[in-house]
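Review the following:
>
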Amino acid sequence: MPAHNEEANLERVVGGLADAAGRWAQEYELIVVDDGSRDRTGAIAKRLAQADGRVRSVSHEVNRGYGAAVRSGLGAARMPYVMLCDGDGQFDPADLARLVEKIGEYDVVVGRRVNRAEGFVRRLNGEVWSALMRLLFGLQIRDIDCGFKLFRRDLLDGISLRAQGAMISTELMAKLAARGARICEVDVRHLPRVAGQPSGAKLAVIGRAFVELFVLAGELRAETRKRLRN
């Protein structure tokens, strides 16, 4: 669970996910990655971890970006399956059931936000970005940046993820697809943000995403040529 300045949401989100995980898993862990928050997010995460051994806290001293937070969480994950869920409280933990129902048939189950609780500009940006990712990488995913994903942990073995920002979702999905992972999308609810401020629309975030886009495209082309030679 990547979290940046989510002090007003974190405890509620962790509690909801713990309830949902307890219904579907014999064992689970909740890894909160505080990405250099300036508020009490880190302190709350540490308090929750002290109170419940199934909650783990990972901290970045400075804000390193969404991709870096996701990479830290994946690197710390120890269970056979990994669930990615943003810490902003905009996903309904009960929708975990929709992903779990498909994970026996597929290696990766990706949420697709229906009735996105965002302004028109953010919705349009998301649709255009996902269309661009389908065009460039052949990913048949309509909501590439949905922060609600479930996949097998062993699929990450040997995969090197480099994106620091928003490109992490595309990089992860593109490299899993290149390994032949079976991927499907399921509809999940998207809830209004009740506290805190989103950062995905900031120009710096968008600019970094496009820089990482061209880097990733070059890397994947090079990897494809290497596989063909071998």
About this structure: Strands lie at 2-3, 30-35, 55-60, 81-85, 108-114, 148-152, 183-189. The chain has a mean pLDDT of 87. The two ends are 38 Å apart (CA to CA). DSSP finds seven helices and seven strands in the chain.
